Amino acid sequence: MAQEAAARYIEYPQLQGKVQPLQLEALPKWATIDFQLRGRFENQSSDDYISGNGQSYLLTRVYGGLEIRPTKWLTGYIQFIDTHALGLPLKYVTANQRDVFDDRQAYLEFHFKQTKIFAGRQELKYGGERLVGISDWTNNSRTWDGFLGRYGDNNRIDVFSTSVVEVHASSLDKHGAGLTFHGAVGTIGTWVPHAVIQPFVFIKALPRVQGANGVFGTQTTVTPGAEFAGDFGGFDFDVLGALQRGSYSNESIEAAAGYVNAGYSAAHLKWKPRLRAEYDYASGNPHTNPLRMGTFDQQYPSNHNAFGLTDLFGYQNIKQERINLDLTPVKHLSLLIQEESLQVASRFDNVYSGSAGTTIKAPTAGFRSGDLGHEFDASGKYVFRDYLVLNVGVGHLSSGTLLRENSHGAPLTLAYFGLTYRFRLDHKSVAP
Q1: What is the spatial distance between Cα 22 and Cα 428, in angstroms, rounded to a whole number?
Q2: Cα(174)–Cα(153) distance, rounded to whole angstroms?
């Protein structure tokens, strides 16, 4: 529907292609089996910011799920994951690339009219997934353990209490002690025609953290905000704003983030061009007050292509200006060309990776320049015979002054080619 389309961040690689329905007579009518098979070949010219350190590897991912429907008010679902980074030296394999046969989801869904309750290991996805999402592009996409209650449909409210699942490549994935990530998200799909408003508040509460001044304590980060997305006669937009307040050990939190992107689609023209501009901001810590933290906590986002296809930066202490062009030359084929300019928001704060780790620690006097660099990307998707999705792309980051002056100046080119196929087995084939 139009509301769902408006809430989708189109540059994020949403699943395309259909799930192929297959029939298995031996399967009970109250059960469905589903699989996703994905492989992606990648080549990086300067892995780990090391000039000449070219790495070529194959990322493989297998999902297998079983859904059971014992009664009309209860559904159970369990899903396994098995991922590998073939050909990549172990010292370069990250936590989101490898997970040897593990439990990805396992939950019960209780539903009655407009009320649903989910209990167990599950996905959380809201709006453009810039604050809370599963990060599907990574080999090990994210899930949470806990509880979620939902009431409503086009207008609905979600309330959850969860803890993010930590991936352990050679042992069982599990979350930390207690439930540490909570939230309430409203979705309003009928107030404004062809638009969705999604107010939210997220609370991250960790039992033990160490502040910048070395003092140990607890963390309570409250992130209220809203996302507003719409599509009006070819003009579309997606706007998000969020504040953060709370405490981190003995430091107070005062941070903010937001983005705005808008574009126009000329569907009547050949290749259906769509031109779009975007600005992103997430605050950094200016270190003007040792008892105040200004770094925005990016929460648990889907960061792929938020700051270019090379995926080097997270939604913390960053500014970005981007322009992109979408083209649809033929049915089932989509092309994307884009360019980004990237800077840090504060020269006195660190440079952060997509996983919120510190890539470069800021010197006491701050970086001399805030320029991270410029990136150019080109990518395409083709859906073959409705079910097989082909992805190909290349991104090139030209390092800015900040990276060059801090031993991270090697320009990086990332190229990839991927295939994804999804199918499901029912007692009787059902049209998708």
Answers
A1: 8
A2: 31
Write the CA distances from 339 to 6, 88, 163, 190, 321, integer angstroms.
23, 28, 36, 35, 8
DSSP 91: G
End-to-end CA distance of the chain: 16
Long-range contacts, 228-233 (Cβ 8 Å, 24+): 228/195, 228/196, 228/197, 228/198, 229/6, 229/7, 229/8, 229/127, 229/128, 229/195, 229/196, 229/198, 230/6, 230/192, 230/194, 230/195, 230/196, 231/2, 231/5, 231/6, 231/194, 231/195, 232/194, 232/195
- What average pLDDT values come out for the chain (432 residues) when binned by 10 residues? 39 70 93 97 89 92 97 97 94 90 97 96 93 94 97 94 93 89 95 92 93 87 96 91 96 97 93 95 94 96 94 97 94 94 98 94 96 96 94 96 94 96 85 50
Q: Which CATH architecture has domain 2-426?
A: Beta Barrel (2.40)
Cα torsion angle, 258, 233, 277, 310, sign? positive
Q: Where are the domains of the chain?
A: 2-426
